[in-house]
Please model this.
Amino acid sequence: MSKNLILSWAAKTHQGKVRKNNQDAYGKFPKNHNDPDIPPGQLFIISDGLGGHNAGQVASQLAVRSLGQEFHLQARNKQPLDLREAVKKANRHIFHSASSNTELSGMGTTCSVLLLFEQTATIAHVGDSRIFLINRNEIIQLTQDHSQVAELQRQGILTKEEAQNHPERNILTRALGTLADVPVDVVENIDLQPGDAFLLCTDGLTKVTSEELQETVLHNEPQKACDRLVRMANDRGGEDNVTVVVVQLASEGTSVFSRLTSWFTRKSDANRDG
Ligand code: CA
Ligand code: CA
Model:
């Protein structure tokens, strides 16, 4: 992260109003800036587990843990983090756990990862969680949903509205942990500017429109933005677990957000069920 960009962030996850547990997970690394061995950059992860009982929860948490470990390992080895390889490695961890434990058989998870380093962002992505780049001018979805209905929408067979309300919208065409290897979408060299923000979210947020996402992320401090987005999802039925991570970038000294940051991060939590 460049000296003149200040980062503030927050996250919130909620089980929603219908589901009995929360199979979403998120992570941010490094967790603690007082670590002597701080890896360069900031890594944000969001994952949405699939699988009966607690299996989905295990899968989403394994994805976060595996990526965090890889981030620190590469830093110790003085290697740049290869996001694609890191996600593939997480896939192998989950696949191996699923194959060696009958209770976890068939588990999987989405995984969307944002790495901020110096003036650029890199993302890696599998599944139907989403990463948006948001600023005053636009909101861009940087990820493509790996789901059957999204595929049909891309082919022009379903409209956006039909896809959003389709009964089979949850069927993924790609997930971590379900096969020994998985193709990973990667977008590199996304230029960072003061005023940019990123939103990572699971599909529990799909009933919130792009305009509402943009408005909420730009006009609220990160924690308030997260709280509001989760509330909107729950007010519109809360049919699924919902998780949001909001990251805002500002230039040092000029930002209304700079007062929030002692260094360039501010962790605001995030009760799993709160
Ligand atoms: Ca799920
Ligand atoms: Ca979900």
User: Anything to note?
Assistant: Residues 255-274 have pLDDT under 50 and may be disordered. The first strand starts at residue 5 and ends at 14.
